[in-house]
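Two folds, back to back.
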Amino acid sequence: MVRLSDYPILEELAQRRTKAKRLDRRACRYIYQTGLSEIDPARIGAAERQLIAELGISWRMRDDALLRRLASTYIGWKTPDEAMATPERIIAQVMDIGDYEDIQALAEHVGNDVLRDVLTHAEAGWFSERSWHYWHYRLGLSKLEQVPPMPSRQMD
């Protein structure tokens, strides 16, 4: 659990959504991602930068022309601007259902480290079983017969 008072930007963003004083890392990741466009990177202290990095959030994807184009193709339920709040979701969607050219362009653009990060932080429903296995093997995260279980929803 993350104590919000230790991270001023997170605390500010979270106050709009919850009265909780502590959140799990998944909730923190969601709050940072949805508030990404509102955050001034210059205001972020060292401890909060470390937390953001540990959560796998990349600042360089905030205003990205390729991701915006891919969002308009693969994230049909949101506008590209809305989708850009969670670039990891765009990347996961392309990894899951993208055509060969788009997948190659994405992989070259963001690199395997970002693809690995998206895969290891994926939420339930982001990948089909086939894509889950393929990307774990393709990115060297597991051997063919040793792919970890897919993320699942948990009721608290």
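---
second:
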Amino acid sequence: MADGYSSTTSPRIGINWRAGQGEHRNQYGEIGRALHATCVEPLAELRHPTEQLECHAGQNRTTEGHVLGHLITHDDNLRMVPTDRNELTTAVGRLHEELRALPEETDPARTRVLTRWIGIGQLCLGHHEEARTALRQSLDLAEALGNTPAVIATGLNLADSHRYAGDVQGADALYRSALDTARRRHPELVDFALQHTGKHLMERGDLADARTRLQEALRLRVAKGDTELIGSTRAALDRVELLIGQADASAADLAAPSR
């Protein structure tokens, strides 16, 4: 599951036919479970006010979260990749179409959401320049709107796009900024920033620092009690421990006297 999914805080949709069955009879259906790729913000941001999910009023429309969520997974290096490249390309194209259809500068909040998800999709497809362009636009809009949680979330996505492209310095600055902002303004998002930062440090080879960041993230996530988030961080820690073990073995081989 994505780092940003929470089984306790992700938005839920009322199910009318269950309304009479009692408060404790699964009265709400989760809609956030399909989200991947570092989604930190509430899923509600992905739904246009005029859109409804298929369980409402005969509509059969889907949020961008669902469109992209099932099309994104993680590879063995914990990077986001498509589950189906062609389908993800088509889904990103639909988001582009909606973005082009928006009257210019009339809906900056929606533009921010669309450019963020376009950027995430392009990142998964390996289109690093396009991803950076879209995510930078989304981040600028989040800052202009004063949406600090979105600034943190999109800053992490933009940092990922720099990391995936091999821009270590650019990624490092963005991760530091997002983590600092989360600590100062939104402590509930610190674990997400730590998770992304830990993966960055792992790829950079700073394994001890990566382990420290991920261990802190794990403590925070255990306190939250979210099993999906806990599992995500444990997977990253397992990867770090594997790399540390390999590095120690290599060092021991080099130190051994030659025969």
